[in-house]
Amino acid sequence: MSDATTTPFINPPCEDVVQIHFADPHLLLVDKPAGLLSVPGRHPDNQDCLISRLQEDYRDALIVHRLDMATSGLMVVARGKASHRHLSKQFQQRQVEKEYRARLFGEVAAEQGYIDLPLACDWPRRPRQHINFSDGKAAQTHFRRLAIQDGCSDVLLMPHTGRSHQLRVHAAAIGHPILGCEFYAHPQARRLSDRLLLHSSRLCFIHPDSGEMLDFHSPPPFSAAGSIG
């Protein structure tokens, strides 16, 4: 019987392509498919990832921020060190506007709300995070309900902070885990989707060279057709 603590995890291959929405000498704006790592994993068989694919055609591509492997959607990638410094500073200073679309288990009663729950790594069960009021780091998320269909809720999530697994933990904490979430959803919510229904749908930031405000949108593949009623 193998030891789960020492057996390496090999990610299944991701056949979906990376869509490039915008490219210039300073940055790339791309759509990462669900199931693809943002950066290489530790195991030699987990080297396929967003940045390695992009560097095949854009040798100066540098990662600025990450999405979980299970999360799809928009990412901005720097081209060159100067752009990397500029974009990284925007993320560090929380100048980048980020929005995510998600489908949650159950019918969210509130039309909108604010979740303020500190997060820390759950070391015995890492990479899981947990709510920790004594040692956790501040984590805040605004949400707005968009639609209810088939007993589930489509929501817009607007994180103020960018903690690991923040949106997953916060959604579960209010009793409405994200469908398909392997870490924080109960079995019924996990079974309702074969992927995590979380998508980076909007990024708004300042172009590192021109100073122009760029605002990109990407519709989620799982948007509900119905409306709240």
UniProtKB/TrEMBL annotation:
Query: Which GO molecular-function terms appear in the entry?
Result: 23S rRNA pseudouridine(746) synthase activity; RNA binding; tRNA pseudouridine(32) synthase activity
Entry keyword Lipoprotein = no
Any GO BP annotation: tRNA processing
Identify the SUPFAM superfamilies for this entry: Pseudouridine synthase
- UniProt keyword tRNA processing present: yes
Instruction: Give EC number(s), comma-separated.
Output: 5.4.99.28, 5.4.99.29
Reaction it catalyzes: uridine(746) in 23S rRNA = pseudouridine(746) in 23S rRNA; uridine(32) in tRNA = pseudouridine(32) in tRNA
Keyword list (alphabetical) reads:
Isomerase, rRNA processing, tRNA processing
Q: Where is the Pseudouridine synthase RsuA/RluA-like domain?
A: 26-173
Q: What does this protein do?
A: Dual specificity enzyme that catalyzes the synthesis of pseudouridine from uracil-746 in 23S ribosomal RNA and from uracil-32 in the anticodon stem and loop of transfer RNAs.
Say which family it is in: Belongs to the pseudouridine synthase RluA family.
Mind telling me what this protein is named?
Answer: Dual-specificity RNA pseudouridine synthase RluA
